[in-house]
Amino acid sequence: MITTTNILNFAGYRLINLGVTLDNVHQYDKKEFARYKKEDPYEDKRVDYPLTVDSIVVDIGGLTGDWAQRIYCRYNCNIAVFEPHPVLSAQAMSNFHGNPKVTIYPIALGKEDGTLTLYGDNPNASLFRNSAGKEYVVKVCKTSDTFRRLYLGKKIDLVKINVEGSEYDILPDLIGNYDMTSIRDIQIQFHSNVSGWRGRRNEIREYLAATHKCNWCYETIFENWTLK
Fold first, then answer.
1. What is the pLDDT of residues 167-219, one digit of tens each?
2. What does the alpha-carbon distance between residue 187 and residue 153 come to, in Å, rounded to a whole number?
3. Taking 80 as the threshold, does the pLDDT of residue 71 lie above it?
4. Cβ-proximal residues to 117 (8 Å cutoff; 6+ apart), any chain
5. Model-level pTM?
6. 127 close to 90: Cβ distance less than 8 angstroms
7. How far apart are CA 218 and CA 46, in angstroms?
């Protein structure tokens, strides 16, 4: 049945979709980037999932909630957005103010509890020192512990990870300390700004292959793994 909510969500998704771009900080392989833009010019793969209004989506590295907005507008599902940068998380909270289905957590996820320093004020704020703005010390929570606290006994339909290099901490922690069979889809951006990134990426992919299969991949841009 078509409802007013369906129509508004579809319209909102299309409006947001028109303005979606990749960030302008990371340097991608030119051929791989060209292939990505040719095959998926509107980044539809990133939001094309079998989600429903009851689905659970986890957005790790949510920025201002841009990707989460696309997902919500399309599916009206339940979303948790983890964004530690105080400026970006505040904007995300504003964007979803009054929406009971979207929760913003102003913390970082990692391999252990602690803190980290973020540099810069814009949407491309980084773990690496730069001159793009202030420095912020933010809270880090162990990913596997956080998932157990929030989702114990539940199935997670989709996890998106875009965390400027922290994926090399987050994914090994989840693989080693969490039930990966409870996560259906995992969308990852692996970054090349970390020492030994290729070997670490390959190792993570080998472990992921025990429970999931890679159904599309654009190296260091985005790739998706689906439960076998």
1. 999 999 999 999 999 999 999 999 998 899 999 999 999 999 999 999 999 99
2. 22
3. yes
4. 127, 135, 136, 137, 138
5. 0.88
6. no
7. 12
The CA-CA-CA angle for residues 164, 211, 222, to 5°, reads 30
Q: Are strands 212-218 and 156-161 parallel, antiparallel or unpaired?
A: unpaired
CA geometry: angle 52, 46, 161, nearest 5 deg: 95
Nearest to 195 by CA among 222, 165, 218: 165
Cα distance between residue 217 and residue 228, in whole Å? 16
CA-to-CA distance for 221 and 21, rounded, in angstroms?
12
Buried b (16+ CB within 10 A) or exposed e, 167-191: bbbbbbbbbeebbbeebbbbbbbbb
Residue 98 three-state SS: coil
Closest CA to 71 of 155, 144, 157, 189: 157
Q: How far apart are CA 156 and CA 46, in angstroms?
A: 16
53's tokens: 């209004």
| H or E element at residue 201 | helix 197-208
Computed over every residue of the chain, the mean pLDDT equals 87
Decide: residue 70, CB within 10 A, 0-12 exposed, 13-18 middle, 19+ buried.
buried
Q: What is the DSSP letter of 204?
A: H
CATH code, residues 21-227: 3.40.50.150
Helical packing angle, 167-177 and 143-151, nearest 10°: 60
Q: Across-strand partners of 80?
A: 58, 103
